[in-house]
Amino acid sequence: MAPLDTPSLDFYKVVTDNMGEGLYSADAHGLLTFMNPAAEAMLGWTFDELKGRRMHDMTHHHYPDGRPFPVEECAGFQVVRNGQTLRDYDDVFIRKDGTFLPVSYSSSPLRSGGEIVGLVVVFRDASARRLTEEALKANESDARLLQELGAELMRQDDVGSFYQKIVDGASQIMRSEFASMQMLHPERGSHGELQLLAFRGFAPADAKAWEWVGAETGTTCGEALKTGVRVIAADTEHSSYRDVYHDTAIRAVQSTPLFSRQGARVGMLSTHWNRPHEPSPRDLRNLDILARQAADIMDQQRELQVADRHKDQFLATLAHELRNPLAPIRNALTVLNVPGITSERAERAREVIGRQVNQMVRLIDDLMDINRISRGTLELRRRRFAIGSLVWQAVETCLSVEARRKRDISVTVPPQPLFVDADPVRLHQILCNVLNNAVKFSNDNDRISIAVDQQDRDLVLTVSDTGIGIPPGKLERVFEMFSQVEQAPGHVKTGLGIGLALVRQLAELHGGSATAHSDGVGRGSRFVIRLPIVTNPPLYPQQTAPRTPTQSADGRRVLVVDDNRDNADSLAALLQVEGYDVRLAYDGEEALAVAEVYRPHVLLLDIGLPKLSGYDVCRRLREEPWARQATFVAVTGWGQQRDRAQARATGFDAHLVKPVEYEKLAEVLAQRA
Hints:
Elements: H1 9-18, E1 22-27, E2 32-35, H2 37-43, H3 47-50, H4 55-59, H5 79-82, E3 86-94, E4 100-112, E5 115-125, H6 127-155, H7 159-174, E6 178-185, E7 193-200, H8 204-208, E8 212-214, H9 220-227, E9 231-233, H10 242-245, E10 252-259, E11 265-273, H11 281-336, H12 343-375, E12 383-386, H13 387-398, H14 401-406, E13 408-412, E14 419-422, H15 424-440, E15 447-455, E16 458-465, H16 499-509, E17 513-517, E18 525-534, E19 557-561, H17 565-577, E20 581-585, H18 588-598, E21 602-605, H19 614-622, E22 631-636, H20 641-650, E23 654-657, H21 662-671
Parallel strand pairs: 13-15, 19-20, 19-21, 21-22, 22-23
Antiparallel strand pairs: 1-2, 1-5, 3-4, 4-5, 6-7, 6-11, 7-8, 9-10, 10-11, 12-14, 14-18, 15-16, 16-18, 17-18
Helix pairs in contact: 6-7, 6-11, 7-11, 11-12, 12-16, 13-15, 15-16, 18-19
């Protein structure tokens, strides 16, 4: 093989002409002596234009910020002085058109006879790499910003501060001079209206003009509200929004709709610039992350506001419903105190008191049941029984004589018995609540029908009426807690709005369902209760008649302890009428003193007593030999499962919740005789 010849000048020309990097050389004074085609292409100058001129003066004379760049500070030219090669140095060259070119270059000294006579520079275009690095830095910066915003939002406990932080964050992410956040009120206008919650950059007087914005205002947020998609006006002066923004400082704007997790529109997040501006895809992606946080917070606030309204409505209605029975009770008591009252009038007054007290008890029981269900502490006492008799019983006991007289009531029960495995008390409660609802929302002479049927493996109870009906879209709302659907003219809102909520929850506890149906206002309604049916008939246990207190009242000593003197005195009077020997105490210490002397067979103890609680009284007396055979009964307004458990653990034999039905008290006294 022939040896390689020393490369010729043509060889070097071919190499420099075809290399992708720019290359130029200069003498010891920095005057250009050579430049390859790649350097010409990147810088925009030809070699002939720059030949013999100082390269620094043409391509490196000032910084991007406009400051002069002395040649003495040029790292590439310093190799002439120090003789050391500079490698992969990041810098910026200036093109012929004045634009800046990010480069990475290496500079080496040229020597002749051991003396430095010039330098050679090889450089490459670093624009793409620089853009990538800047994008990564920007992404890292935005990620830190979003993380910091998230942490700040978690620390905020004031809703106004929440909204302001979001607006400030949006302005930082989008690098905008202005920003705003709005909440949607769907009840206003055809598409709803946006209410301004927080803003940045606007003068308060200017922001006031945007306090409410509708879909037809010609703004970007109005258009986004109408279409449900983001609207961007990169240059408002050359867009359909010119008339709206022409007299403002806004020259570019974007509006992003905010959606709840369920897909409902809840608001708008907008940013504005005082110059034409097209947001980058990266900025919009980061804004979407912030928008998700904003929508979640806004949706939570809307739910809290709805809950607050329901709570206020509930408390107002509760006060109303408790006052309603108190007025006739007070009137009846006044009648009973009239001298010379006839026995007939006294009996009517007592009936009024009984009915109204029962109404208050049912109201409180419903509230307690809702609480037990929500806490998972309601226990079903299931047994198998035929549904027919319970339906007839519910009609007789739940519908007043007046309701049965003024409505056309029909009951359809199949001749063959249909059995369910259910708690008969709770099923009776379901039927009563639905029947009372039918009476409440129907008029005189309307028809109420109760039908029992079997469909596949389900028992179907249907209560239908020809009353005022239910508006479209409100069929599910009737089962919500404290919900009261708008009434037809002539019908006043009554009740707490918990009866049907209790119906559905009790039905679901039995493995069934409750649904509402209506063809609209004025066309009646139909409530359908489905329960699993059972095919095996029940084996009824032998029933024994409860013992009455008169069977063992004579001579039995009862101590009644309650700090409510009216309650204690009235209960004592009732027991005395039944033949019991009764003593009274009004606080815990008095109860101990009376009991030590009186040695009662039965102690009816309130829990929240002054000086010593009912629990303390029970514990101390249980230590006495005479009290070990006595019966301790807690009579209290506290009726949760934990209250009953605590009473048992303390030593009580029974736990009764105020107001106590005398039949239940009589049963306890008879069992302990």
